[in-house]
Amino acid sequence: MTLRAQIILITALVIVLFVIFNMVRKRKLELKYALAWLLCDIALIIIVCIPKLLDILAALLGIQSPMNLVFFLGFIFALVFIFILTVSLSRVTAKVRRLAQMEALLRKELMEKEKETDEDTE
Is residue 61 assigned to a domain? Predict the structure, then answer.
């Protein structure tokens, strides 16, 4: 990797890092989701700063090409992030269901009280 490419990549990754921090600060992105992106960004910065690290890591894991390692790690990251989002979606779905049930029970109670007051006034 050329020095110019390293500088461009590091600059882009640092900008992404600041964007993530800013979104967390403005509460546009929850911290639990931001942590995965922050870890990925920091890992990419380390790999760009030390390109031989990818070769060493690929050799340690028995992967022939460092690019195959990049694709493998990207795939693993995507799977982990999809799992995190699925768990989060399941929790939100359960909360919405509970809220809908509570709202229906409150409506029923309100209707029953309205019927009682209508019968009392007659």
Answer: no
Q: What's the number of domains the chain is made of?
A: 2
Between 31-49 and 52-61, two packed helices, what is the crossing angle to 10 degrees? 100
pLDDT digits (tens, 9 = 90+) for 43-72: 999 988 998 998 999 999 999 998 899 899
The type of residue at 104 is A
| Count of beta carbons in the 10 Å neighbourhood of residue 84 | 14
Query: Which of 77, 68, 9 minimizes the C-alpha distance to 40?
Result: 77
Going by pLDDT thresholds of 50, 70 and 90, the confidence category of residue 122 is low
Do both 101 and 76 map to the same domain? Answer: yes
Let me know: does 34 contact 23? Beta carbons within 8 Å.
yes
Q: What's the pTM?
A: 0.70
- Its domain, for residue 30, covers 1-50
Q: Does any domain span residue 60?
A: no
Q: Which residues contact 66 (CB under 8 A, 6 or more apart)?
A: 54, 55, 57, 58
43 and 10 in a common domain = yes
The amino acid occupying position 66 is: P
